[in-house]
Design goal:
Layout: H1 9-12, H2 37-44, E1 55-60, H3 63-74, H4 85-95, E2 103-106, H5 111-117, H6 121-126, E3 137-139, H7 150-155, E4 160-162, E5 172-180, H8 184-195, E6 200-208
Parallel strand pairs: 1-6, 2-5, 5-6
Antiparallel strand pairs: 3-4
């Protein structure tokens, strides 16, 4: 798949799409199709086991993607999201549409971060998908997860809260975010959804770091 003509083909080819063998849970590129070490640790921990059914990511986090993501998120160029529309929707249809989700739910930003940036990049991506969109999560822990160690991320008990549990009850929900790194953000969100009545949670992320 190629991007809409908001970028030239030569530029788009510098992005590395994820193909070949990957971890069956988090979609990390690797030589085998067994659970990666990160997912093994998650699944061996009773409080996180079976919280997230599956993550699908579209691109690897190479140097070009790092620059584009920085421009997209931190320099306020929201229009860049359109570069990824076709590939993002294609990945959903090819890998996730058969799971028959009831709704898509973008990972929320804190109010402070949303004010600084002017938009939520996860919501812009979620807008591309042919699913009803829920606004059921609120971010309650405002410090950036990327600045913490894995242990600190695991100990952050209440990163998110659910505003209205009735709207997610028995729902099959697809979380959307821009990047999957350790899986902490996605799993904290998924855990809140499952504990408040969601039937199933998977995720679709633009980049796998």
């Amino acid at each position: 798949m190629q991007a809409d003509k908001v970028s030239c083909d030569q530029c788009f080819q510098t992005f590395k799409q994820i193909t070949g063998s990957t971890c069956p849970c988090c979609n990390r590129p690797q030589e085998t199709m067994e659970l990666c070490s990160d997912c093994t640790r998650w699944e061996n921990d009773p409080q996180w086991k079976n919280i997230l059914a599956k993550n699908i990511s579209v691109f690897e986090y190479n140097d070009v993607m790092k620059d584009v993501l920085s421009t997209f998120k931190f320099r306020g160029d929201a229009a860049l999201v359109n570069v990824f529309k076709q590939t993002f929707v294609f990945s959903y249809k090819n890998h996730l549409s058969s799971q028959q989700f009831d709704a898509v739910l973008p990972i929320p930003l804190s109010n402070e971060r949303l004010h600084e940036r002017g938009f939520n990049q996860a919501k812009l991506l979620a807008n591309f998908l042919p699913l009803p969109q829920l606004d059921a999560l609120q971010r309650t822990h405002h410090e950036k997860q990327s600045k913490k160690s894995r242990h600190e991320r695991l100990q952050a008990a209440h990163v998110f809260s659910v505003d209205n549990p009735s709207i997610i009850e028995n729902k099959r929900i697809l979380l959307v975010d821009d990047i999957y790194t350790t899986g902490s953000t996605i799993r904290h969100a998924a855990k809140q959804l499952i504990q408040n009545g969601a039937a199933h949670v998977s995720s679709l992320t633009l980049i796998r770091s």
